[in-house]
Write the structure tokens for this entry.
Amino acid sequence: MIHSVYEWITANTTEVTGTVLGLIYIVFSIRQNILTWPIGLLSSVFYIVIFFSSQLYAAMGLQVYYAFISIYGWYYWKKGQKEEDSNQISFVRRTGKNLWIKILVAEIVVFVSLYFILKNLTDSDVPVLDALTTSTSIIATWMLARKLLENWIIWIFSDFLCIFLYFQKGLWPTTILFTVYTIMAFVGYFEWRKNLNIQLEKNT
């Protein structure tokens, strides 16, 4: 049994490594630690390879986006630190009504664009689900970088859909990872909301 597990891990080193990095990433993001971004960058590199081999082209493109947004988030969180030795950006914010409208429009545009590309220009066999999970993840990651509380709500929806997508593709470690992501997104929301309430109390 142990030998079989070892052989499986050896044969799936890239996915296992990406999964482990992904778990570390979600823990750091909940804790609002700036190491969220370099760890996320490393995880993205591994998943670019994984999703390309699985014909999940939108998801692969998402990882390229993650790599760039990780650099942006790293800079934004570092710039927003209150103190030089702090690991946290200064505040969590709520998403305003006008920004929600812009986010919804962006989501529709990105989803439709990705679906068209996947349906007509690739051999993807899951264009709707791949496009939907990718477009929502793009939005959620940007919101995370801007430290908007509701990023976790988008992640809950996106990660839950990803469970079915990666299960269908037989990406077992990644399926487990996104099951954990879904649960941890709930944790992240309540932790960030608690942090926001503390900030509001300090300002009153």
